[in-house]
Design goal:
Helices cover 47% and strands 5% of the residues. The chain has 145 residues and is mainly α. It has one domain.
Length: 145
């Protein structure tokens, strides 16, 4: 009898685990849009997941990212916000030219990941900027006034 109960319990746990892994009944919502991975250049598609996610977020949220500073020293190369670490330009037709800077800069990506997390938590852009300023100013000067 013990063996039967143990077997039933084990089977129940296995099926519970399988249904949890399948994602059924789970809705993943974000507080922001994300650009399609197919719109990313090959270098971004080959990058670690956190970098891919940061590029996708930056490309889809210029209104937010242009208000977020970067503290990696990229102001010296003309970047004026964290957005510039990902996007060099956008044509009048909407075609994005990506900047490779954030591919090799953990500070840029960390700032973007923090901005994403804080948005999910319901923080405003001004609250996010204050957090970024406080957290990252130790690494160097802001690239924003």
């Amino acid at each position: 009898m013990r063996r039967l109960i143990f077997s039933l319990l084990l089977i129940s746990l296995i099926f519970t685990g399988l249904s949890a892994c399948s994602g059924q009944g789970q809705v993943t919502e974000t507080a922001y849009p994300m650009a399609s991975m197919s719109d990313m250049p090959a270098e971004v598609r080959a990058a670690p997941a956190s970098v891919q996610e940061a590029y996708r977020f930056a490309a889809a949220n210029p209104d937010i990212m242009q208000q977020i500073p970067c503290y990696c020293g990229c102001g010296a190369v003309g970047h004026t916000s964290n957005y510039d670490c990902y996007v060099s330009s956008v044509s009048t037709g909407g075609t994005i030219t990506f900047d490779n800077h954030a591919l090799g800069c953990g500070i840029c990506v960390d700032i973007t990941q923090d901005a994403m997390r804080l948005l999910r938590e319901g923080k405003s852009v001004s609250e996010i900027r204050a957090y970024i300023d406080q957290t990252y100013s130790q690494y160097g000067p802001s690239n924003m006034p």
